[in-house]
Amino acid sequence: xxxxxxxxxxxxxxxxxxxxxxxxxxxxxxxxxxxxxxxxxxxxxxxxxxxxxxxxxxxxxxxxxxxxxxxxxxxxxxxxxxxxxxxxxxxxxxxxxxxxxxxxxxxxxxxxxxxxxxxxxxxxxxxxx
Length: 129
Known about the structure:
Layout (H helix, E strand, L loop, with lengths): L4 E7 L2 E9 L4 E3 L2 E2 H4 L3 H7 L1 H6 L5 E8 L3 H19 L4 H6 L30
Parallel strand pairs: 3-5
Antiparallel strand pairs: 1-2, 2-5, 3-4
Pfam families: Ribosomal_S9
Keywords: Ribonucleoprotein, Ribosomal protein
Family: Belongs to the universal ribosomal protein uS9 family.
């Protein structure tokens, strides 16, 4: 068994590099405690959901470097990274995480803007005359 488990999680344009070591349950994201980084309870619970489901919140110290995107994409990226790290540490948690779809990379990305349109799908205002 490796001492440090490192995995990558992605969501939209966010990339999270997760480093998991056996410890006391500290979660550090970009050198800040998770409570400071994700001030919103919804984003924080989304990011830490794999730990809560597998009931391993106090077993590991997790250090995360996350960059790109917004706060929602980053919380999704952290969640995927933690889920992958837990699976790498212990294969028995895989079915639990898989049923909750926490091991699946969300493929949805922002659709590009097309020419002749205001946004990706929105058209310019139509003028009859």
